[in-house]
């Protein structure tokens, strides 16, 4: 097993604790560190409180030789990270002419006017390495004590990412002389629950080399697997993952494995664009959620033509030509109706592919025959229509998300089969 350098992450800010701001920094840092051969063993989010910040630093120091901190570097009184670091390391803030000149350049380039609060951002600890922030105003500081490195970065994601990419990672690599190569491959697998997939892959997982990890990454309606190799050189990492990928695809023959860690909506768009084909949706229980997800991708106008949110039966009949007698006989939540919705969308929207959904998202509306969570999904092109019945759970938001993911997965299955024919 090739050892990975261990690291800790601390994010600072009252806004993180109360949910006013979502902590995306630690997720990005963790992913980036992992890709570069560092193992995150500790993560904490604390408020703008001296006692809590110091407590988190002490805990991180016990766990890892590297601690990366973001947040609390603004010019206002509630931002107190640097003052707290000064207390922890026994140093003082002093005025840095170099940092101030960098601030002047930043403000001149942006056409802003500096004020006294901005000038205070040139106050930095006198016993650290100051790293100039070329993406913002708050400086980055590097402390090195007792075989432990602590780096304090701004909480603004764009500034943090610039510093990590251009300054921190190169310095860490040089400092620790780490030569560990990491290779990841992620798969999307259909037709298995997490437990069923684990049973199917038990022998495969037990036979993996010590420097390879298999991770299960379940989402609502989607199962993902990630193979990770931590090797001595890039060639070994790539060859190992490629060989294991072939084994995995052989074991999962009959289900769909989609390489890569891209989202379903991105994968869908890429496949449709390569085929020069279009898609539209006819949605009832999902209320346009599939359309919203597909159009969240930049450039989706190349392949997405439109959507009909047919919530009421009258809309299903009048806009999608769903049979009134079938609605009465089978109900809106049925194979007959959802397949007609998909065919109607093809005709009305003039697209190559259509997805239709009809179901009982909940929390009410269920019956003994069709309980809450009963969903019908159909995918159609000009040659065929296929449908799938799902029985999800009772939580409305989860049922909608599961339906969206399952529908896109079914679409990708059909596209893959059509391209093979």
What features would you describe in this structure?
43% of the residues lie in helices and 25% in strands. The mean pLDDT is 91. The strands form 4 sheets. The protein has a 6-stranded mixed β-sheet, with helices on both faces. Strands 14-13-15-16-17 form a 5-stranded mixed β-sheet, sandwiched between helices. A 4-stranded antiparallel β-sheet has the order 10-11-9-12. The protein folds into 3 domains: 5-176, 3-Layer(aba) Sandwich (Molybdenum Cofactor Biosythetic Enzyme, Chain A), CATH 3.40.980; 181-259, Alpha-Beta Plaits, CATH 3.30.70.600; 264-420, Maf protein (Alpha-Beta Complex). It has 421 residues and is of the alpha/beta class. Helix 2 (25-35) packs parallel to helix 7 and helix 11 runs parallel beside helix 16. It is elongated, with a radius of gyration of 27 Å. Strand 16 (374-380) and strand 17 (385-391) form a beta hairpin.
Structural class: alpha/beta
Strand order of the largest sheet: 2-1-3-8-7-6
CA distance, first residue to last residue: 44 Å
The CATH superfamily label of the largest domain reads MoaB/Mog-like domain
CATH class of the largest domain: Alpha Beta
Helix content: 40-55%
Mean pLDDT: 91
CATH topology of the largest domain: Molybdenum Cofactor Biosythetic Enzyme, Chain A
Q: Which regions are unreliable across 5 or more consecutive residues at pLDDT < 50?
A: none
Supply the number of structural domains: 3
Rg over C-alpha atoms, rounded to the nearest angstrom: 27 Å
Q: Care to count the β-strands?
A: 17
Count, helices: 16
Fraction of residues in β-strands: 15-25%
Could you give a short account of the major beta sheet? 6 strands, mixed
The CATH architecture name of the largest domain reads 3-Layer(aba) Sandwich
Overall, the morphology is elongated
